[in-house]
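Researcher: Good morning. I'm working through a list of sequences from a screen, and I'd like to move beyond sequence-only analysis. For each chain I'm collecting a predicted structure so we can compare shapes side by side. This is the next one on the list. No need for commentary yet; just the structure.
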Amino acid sequence: MKVLRIGVGWLAVVLLTVGCAGERGQATAEPTVEVSTTEPAPTATSFARTELGDAPSPSATPSSSPSGGPAAKPTATASSRAPAKPAPETPAPPPPSESEPTGCPPSHEGTPASRTQVRSALTNAAAKTYWPTSAPDIRIPAALVKATAWQESGWQSTIVACDGGIGLMQVMPATADWMNQRFGQSYDVWDYRDNAYLGVNYLAWLTKYIGDLYFDGDYRLDASLCSAELNSCLLNAVIASYNYGHAAVASGEGPITIPNPRYVGNVRALMTECVCLAY
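Model: Good morning. Structure tokens for this chain:
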């Protein structure tokens, strides 16, 4: 965000060349922060895992039950029912572009932020309350934020993808403009701290949008609520939407669809295995 187009493709090389980030989809949040985007179709494992040295072992699969014992699941899974209620928001973020450049190496602009600076920016963005009035209980896990940023950019604050995705969270310019207008903000997509807020705000918007539409206002982004079916939980739907756009994942006209299972699997694995978690 995408924010809608928060980039779906992945980058190709870590320090030398990186694959073009795909577009992303985005949605709205309460008068607070921002968005992020992504969208490329599920292809090969993204550079974030294969090139930056933290790819899970071939047998690794997204964990479905963390060490703390599974939390109670929603009364019904998204795949077994129609949307819980009409979409809570009318304004929608800009749609992802229909095509993305291929064979195009990313470029870099500006002075790169250090890992310490990036960690602080992502941690601060994750700690923010994005819906203080209507949904103050929405929390975006720091592990999800760090994993998404690693998947999208490898924590490279200056990277600009071929499709236009910018910075840590690969936020599209149109998404950043939409987010700022929607929430009365003035975040600079080129500033790594604001870029983090834009991306996480988009995750928060997706959480509320899809949580209201399919999960009766249950906003828990908890892996223990996920079954073997990818469309069974809010966490997977939010991750998929960040990369592919909310309209392709949660249209409100039928069950949740996960068009990019490889991306979702990558981010889920990175939430527990990413080397970035130790930074």
